[in-house]
């Protein structure tokens, strides 16, 4: 679901500058600066969907932070590695990294870090279908953020609570949570998170069969994700738009958008999402023999099993 992730944001122009600075800092052996640049480059690679390169950068940063005994940045890097493994569908490894980050943050008393990890652990529980556990983790995170004055970050938790209510089919409460999140994102001009919230509001309208409104939200989300080059977000909205077109009977357009989504998910190593889209394509092919032939399915790794969807066509929105 990508939604409580602690991912510092960098614009694309910084990417080349970061490589230059990294080389310069390495030459003069400024260990802390080198580590910070590795971490920032890891964030950039992860945003672009190059998870292998992102992992390499994060591990380089972690090695140097350990050498400098920089506990706060070690915890943040473990959290980023957890996010990376979450994107790959390696939920057990992600959980290990998050728990390591939690232990470090608790040891140094960093409340923001503790809140971030509880949010990520809530994401894991949600991905596994454990809604009560996910809600408990999210509310622990929210309580810390509100008490500590982290208003901008609390918006993400409202979004995640909206997902819980959506999964329980309490759409009124889900809308309420997402609108609280959107208001907060707009207040702090957090366009990246606004992109995610627009997608969630689209999911609700899709569930209410308000397909035109849902499409508008998905298109707004897609435009913002494209603006920042967020490959996972782009693929997610391609997936959701494909659902809209399938529900309207526009099978050719649904196929087109799902193939775009599949290609991106495969490219960035997002195996859980890729598997969902493959299942949709396979069912669409079985229902409409006139659709194109599926290409050979790539060997993309072994994702953890997901909860079985409840609806006949598996038209659950991507998150």
């Amino acid at each position: 679901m990508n939604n409580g992730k602690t991912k510092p944001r960098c614009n694309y122009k910084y990417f080349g500058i970061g490589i230059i600075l990294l080389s310069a800092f390495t030459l003069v052996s400024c260990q802390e600066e080198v580590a910070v640049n590795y971490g920032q480059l890891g964030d950039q690679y992860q945003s672009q969907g190059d998870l292998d390169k992102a992992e390499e950068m994060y591990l380089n940063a972690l090695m140097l932070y350990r050498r400098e005994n920089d506990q706060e940045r070690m915890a943040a890097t473990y959290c980023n590695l957890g996010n990376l493994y979450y994107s790959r569908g390696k939920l057990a490894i992600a959980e290990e990294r998050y728990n390591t980050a939690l232990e470090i943050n608790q040891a140094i008393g960093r409340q923001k870090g503790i809140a971030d990890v509880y949010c990520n652990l809530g994401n894991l529980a949600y991905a596994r279908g454990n809604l009560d556990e996910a809600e408990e983790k999210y509310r622990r995170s929210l309580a810390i953020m509100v008490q500590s004055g982290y208003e901008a970050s609390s918006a993400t938790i409202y979004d995640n609570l909206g997902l819980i209510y959506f999964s329980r089919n309490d759409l009124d409460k889900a809308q309420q949570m997402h609108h609280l999140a959107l208001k907060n994102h707009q207040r702090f001009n957090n366009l990246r998170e606004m992109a995610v919230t627009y997608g969630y509001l689209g999911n609700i309208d899709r569930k209410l069969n308000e397909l035109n409104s849902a499409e508008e939200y998905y298109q707004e989300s897609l435009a913002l994700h494209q603006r920042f080059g967020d490959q996972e977000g782009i693929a997610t909205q391609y997936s959701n738009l494909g659902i809209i077109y399938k529900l309207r009977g526009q099978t050719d357009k649904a196929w087109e958008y799902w193939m775009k989504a599949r290609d991106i998910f495969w490219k960035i190593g997002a195996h859980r999402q890729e598997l969902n889209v493959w299942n949709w394509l396979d069912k669409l092919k079985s229902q409409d023999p006139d659709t194109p032939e599926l290409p050979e399915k790539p060997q993309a790794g072994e994702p953890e099993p997901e909860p079985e969807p409840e609806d006949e066509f598996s038209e659950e929105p991507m998150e």
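The two ends are 5 Å apart (CA to CA). The longest helix spans residues 31-48.
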